[in-house]
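Structure (tokenized):
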């Protein structure tokens, strides 16, 4: 008799789907590749997750949760936050790729609860900053922190001469200057 571990199967599917979506996006992802990598079946994937969009939502929500846990937001020290975000995306490029696919392939719709809540809390925490609107400030800080991982290939080649420590230092310094008062 074969004993199935549904939770282990779900974890394998999520790991395989994370790699697949990070590489190919939602439209390009193929459930047969996810099933093969997860040592599962497409039928099992659909039984657990419903459809490809719901599987992507589960993958992206898990990625957002891991990112939020690893990169503590601190409205009082935005340069340090930007440095932590830079480090996380440098160490976890799949997380940044999933974010990019999410932005490209889900530009409208209700949004994911984890993303909505994280943005709401951050914008509220930034309300005390008076030089920029909170939404604008958060947009700029996050763009600076993630910029090294979102370059076009032609520029990335030229930028590759800047080592990671200098890239991080530049991110932190740029956000420090952006948030200086006076």
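Design, position by position:
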């Amino acid at each position: 008799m074969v004993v199935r571990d549904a939770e282990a199967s779900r974890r394998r599917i999520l790991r395989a789907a994370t790699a697949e979506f990070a590489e190919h996006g939602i439209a390009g992802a193929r459930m047969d590749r996810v099933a093969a990598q997860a040592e599962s079946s497409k039928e099992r994937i659909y039984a657990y997750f419903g459809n490809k969009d719901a599987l992507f939502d589960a993958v992206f929500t898990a990625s957002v949760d891991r990112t939020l846990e690893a990169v503590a937001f601190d409205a009082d020290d935005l340069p340090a936050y930007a440095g932590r975000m830079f480090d996380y995306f440098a160490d976890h490029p799949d997380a940044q790729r999933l974010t990019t696919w999410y932005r490209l392939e889900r530009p409208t719709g209700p949004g994911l609860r984890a993303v909505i809540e994280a943005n709401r809390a951050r914008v509220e925490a930034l309300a005390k900053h008076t030089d920029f609107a909170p939404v604008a400030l958060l947009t700029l800080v996050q763009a600076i922190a993630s910029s090294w991982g979102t370059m076009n290939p032609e520029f990335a080649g030229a930028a590759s001469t800047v080592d990671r420590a200098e890239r991080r230092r530049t991110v932190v310094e740029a956000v420090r200057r952006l948030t200086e008062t006076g």
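Reviewer-requested clarification: The longest helix spans residues 6-28. Residues 71-179 form one domain.
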